[in-house]
Amino acid sequence: LDLSNCSLHSIPPGLAKATTAIVLDLTENPLTTLPDGSFLGFIHLQSLAVPLMLECPGGSDAWQDVTVDGSSRLCQGQRNPCNSSVELAWPCPENSVCAADGPGFVQCLCDSPFHGYKCLREGTFPMLLFGGILGTATVSLSLLLWGTQRRKAKTP
């Protein structure tokens, strides 16, 4: 994806949809910062060229090779922070596994059959029970309101 020399003053909002990009060039743009989360989900990104005054997203630890070439900085070989020997600041909870989510980002995915907050709930979400209670409450409230508000309706 070549966005070099496009007079970009900020990261375009549509870039978030290009998470399958492997190579991205942002050089020769008057970018001043890369907002946090700009490259969230870019797990396939292997080569990123940014203007010299910007750092590689996620820092130099998120990339295997960071080189300066003329007026640009080249970030190559995105590292998987889950395979790092450096301990994560927020390790994943029990019953979950670490997964890369872009340069410098990780996400914790619940192992099957666990789900919910901190992957503490086992099994599947009780859809039938949830739907039954919600449906019963909706019908009961509707009947109550129909019965109490019916007398206020004008008859022709």
Explain the overall architecture:
Helices cover 15% and strands 23% of the residues. The protein is α+β, with helices and mostly antiparallel strands and 156 residues long. The strands form 3 sheets. It has a 4-stranded mixed beta sheet, with no helix packed on it. The chain has a two-stranded antiparallel sheet with strand order 5-6. The chain is elongated and about 80 Å long. It comes from Pomatostomus ruficeps (Chestnut-crowned babbler). One of its GO terms (biological process) is positive regulation of osteoblast differentiation.
Strand order of the largest sheet: 1-2-4-3
The value of Rg in angstroms is 25 Å
Q: Work out the helicity level.
A: 10-25%
Order of helices and strands: EEEEEEEEH
How many helical stretches?
1
Number of strands: 8
The residue ranges in which pLDDT falls below 50 over 5 or more consecutive positions are: none
Structural class: alpha+beta
Distance between the termini: 67 Å
Question: Mind sketching the topology for me?
Answer:
Blueprint: E1 23-25, E2 47-51, E3 63-69, E4 72-78, E5 96-100, E6 106-110, E7 114-115, E8 121-122, H1 127-149
Parallel strand pairs: 1-2
Antiparallel strand pairs: 2-4, 3-4, 5-6, 7-8
